[in-house]
Specification:
Blueprint lengths: L3 H5 L3 H9 L13 E10 L3 H10 L6 E6 L2 E5 L20 E5 L2 E6 L10 E7 L5 H6 L5 H5 L4 E8 L9 E10 L3 H8 L11 E2 L1 H6 L20 E7 L3 H9 L4 E5 L5 E6 H5 L2
């Protein structure tokens, strides 16, 4: 079992190898400083609608890249940056969700056999990418320290629809001291394609966006909020997965399991020009 510090020091390639071997299943502390992404895989005939869906909803669905059609080992370069070398989107995520007709039918360790020649994978920016920056600035996320999964909630914030895709925001939550919100906002605002600044904070705003019980997240694990802290909410890459379920597609479709993204080879400094 790796310590949190050992996980933070892993290279992306080392992390992906451990995942393929079934030896790593906690992603919040892995490869600090490197981009992490969520994933949705669906038939190519829905690809244009999905790209437009992401374009219309850039905060919860920031599209980073996509795979070649039918080939999960090829991830398209972004701004001449290599995102994934010697990797496989169908094997290098700890857990995959398999959906059919809007229902979760199984959770798999890989989807190599399921990835058909007419399927394409979309990579969505993940807030885990800025966890290293928060840690360095003195704001280590409690879920990372405890080895749990970040709390995520469905909301009442409507998405802009595109084709068959519609639905509502999903948000992630981190407890932050009330007098530190502006500092945290400035740090995460630099990570626009990983959800950027928080969209809401505090208990009143939680109710306004439809979260009735913070102790009961829809995805991930509950986390303690101390007396001098308030809940802070970011857009979340589980949103397109939720929209995928709501689309109720007749074909089998796939996604990462909430809280278990893919780590890329590109450092945040290179991707965001920090």
């Amino acid at each position: 079992m790796l310590t949190i510090d050992q996980m933070r020091e892993l290279s992306p390639a080392e992390a992906r190898l451990l995942i393929r071997e079934g030896k790593l299943d906690q992603m919040g502390s892995v490869a600090d400083g490197y981009m992490q992404v969520n994933m949705v895989c669906l038939p190519e005939k829905y690809a244009d609608d999905f790209r437009e869906f992401c374009r219309r909803n850039p905060v919860p669905c920031p599209l980073v890249s996509e795979t070649a059609v039918g080939d999960p080992t090829v991830v398209l370069d972004v701004q001449k940056h290599k995102l994934l070398e010697n990797g496989n989107v169908a094997t290098d995520i700890p857990k995959y969700c398999v959906y059919h007709g809007g229902d979760l039918v199984s959770v798999e360790k890989n989807i190599v056999e399921q990835w058909k020649e007419n399927y394409v994978g979309f990579l969505i920016g993940c807030s885990f990418s800025f966890e290293g920056a928060l840690h360095k600035a003195g704001f280590p996320s409690r879920y990372r320290i405890k080895g749990t999964v970040v709390s995520m909630y469905k909301t009442n914030i409507k998405l802009c629809p595109s084709g068959v895709f519609k639905g509502y925001y999903v948000v992630s939550m981190r407890p932050i001291k009330a007098d530190k919100i502006e500092e945290v906002r400035k740090i995460t605002s630099k990570y626009g394609q990983c959800h950027g600044s928080p969209i809401a904070w505090g208990y009143e705003e939680a109710l306004e966006i439809g979260i009735k019980d913070i102790a009961k997240p829809d995805y991930g694990d509950p986390i303690e909020i101390l007396e001098d802290e308030i809940p802070v909410f970011w857009g979340c890459g589980v949103t397109p997965q939720y929209a995928l379920v709501e689309a109720n597609l007749p074909e089998e479709v796939y996604s990462h399991h909430p809280g278990f993204p893919l780590v890329l080879d590109i450092h945040e400094n290179d991707f965001f020009g920090l």
